[in-house]
């Protein structure tokens, strides 16, 4: 089962549409999560239809910021449990197997919002006994080796995120694809 999670940084031009189509063709995912779409549902629905996904859920962009899209194929059952500007929390069933929780995340980019977000996000874990997977962009770099250029890693943000992972009993799975995604 393949998932694609992509911080699109906007889906308003033919280059981004082509990159999306090429990625979907290459990986043939059953679930696609797009963050920072900077678009409203009506626009994203046209893209979903063109790319032949049967199900969808959206958190509209606010002005020219944010925006989340979740698409899935007909063989996947997705129930939306909760959503916000920064995540879509779901219950997924594949081929009638045991349901599991998957939260698709786009962490807040602004430092002032991060600590409260992790406190609120932790409540999702406390509310479930299901297996849980978190997919997306947390907008935190925990080690300088994970980035090139720009400002140095903010240790307090990295610690907050690592503490959250520890308390929630989470592990980081290896990525497949570009190193800086």
From TrEMBL:
InterPro entries, A to Z: Endo/exonu/phosph_ase_sf, Endo/exonuclease/phosphatase
Gene3D superfamilies, sorted: Endonuclease/exonuclease/phosphatase
Species this chain originates from: Hibiscus sabdariffa (roselle)
Any one Pfam family match given in the protein's UniProt record, by short name: Exo_endo_phos
Name of the protein described by the UniProt record: Endonuclease/exonuclease/phosphatase domain-containing protein
Sequence ranges assigned to domain Endonuclease/exonuclease/phosphatase in this UniProt record: 5-146
Superkingdom per UniProt: Eukaryota
């Amino acid at each position: 089962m393949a998932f694609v999670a992509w911080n699109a940084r906007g889906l308003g031009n033919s280059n981004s549409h082509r990159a999306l189509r090429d990625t979907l063709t290459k990986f043939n995912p059953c679930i696609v999560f797009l963050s920072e779409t900077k678009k409203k549902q009506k626009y994203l629905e046209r893209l979903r239809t063109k790319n032949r996904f049967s199900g969808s859920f959206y958190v509209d962009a606010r002005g020219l910021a944010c925006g989340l899209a979740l698409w899935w194929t007909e063989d996947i059952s997705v129930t939306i449990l909760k959503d916000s500007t920064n995540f879509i929390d779901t219950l997924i069933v594949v081929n009638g197997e045991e349901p599991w929780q998957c939260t698709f995340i786009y962490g807040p980019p602004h430092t002032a919002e991060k600590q409260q977000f992790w406190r609120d996000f932790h409540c999702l874990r406390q509310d479930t006994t299901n297996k849980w997977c978190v997919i997306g962009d947390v907008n935190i770099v925990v080690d300088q080796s994970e980035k090139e250029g720009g400002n140095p890693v903010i240790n307090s943000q990295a610690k907050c995120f690592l503490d959250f992972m520890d308390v929630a009993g989470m592990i980081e799975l290896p990525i497949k694809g570009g190193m800086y995604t």
